[in-house]
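Thread: Newbie trying to understand structure tokens

Hi all, I'm a second-year student working on a class project, and my supervisor (Dr. K.) asked me to get a predicted structure for one chain before our next meeting. I've only ever worked with sequences, so writing a 3D structure as a token string is new to me. If someone could post the tokens and maybe explain what I'm looking at, I'd be very grateful. Here's the chain:
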Amino acid sequence: FDFVHHQALNNVPVLLAATGGSDRHALIIDHQLRPLFGFFQALSLPIGVYATEADFTDYRITSPQLLERIERAVEAAVLSLHPTVQPNASAA
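---
Reply by user tm_fold:
Sure, no problem. This is what the structure looks like when written as tokens:
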């Protein structure tokens, strides 16, 4: 980010996601990434996605909980990009 212009992400919607070795690192989204993208004046979505090694098998997502969080985050992202689009009612 040292080479990113400070206005390059102004008003750009951003879905924050991170991985780490354990659940102990889950706060990186709110304590590190959210302030960083706030500095760049990006529009960080209120939902973030964090995953650990346990959520993957052979580099593929195998955790149903993680897949559900990703789905919720994508729905929020779609709504922020296209506010007139309604989420899939059958997914609820």
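A couple of things are worth pointing out once you decode it. The helical segments are 28-39, 64-81. The chain has a mean pLDDT of 89. Feel free to ask follow-ups in this thread.
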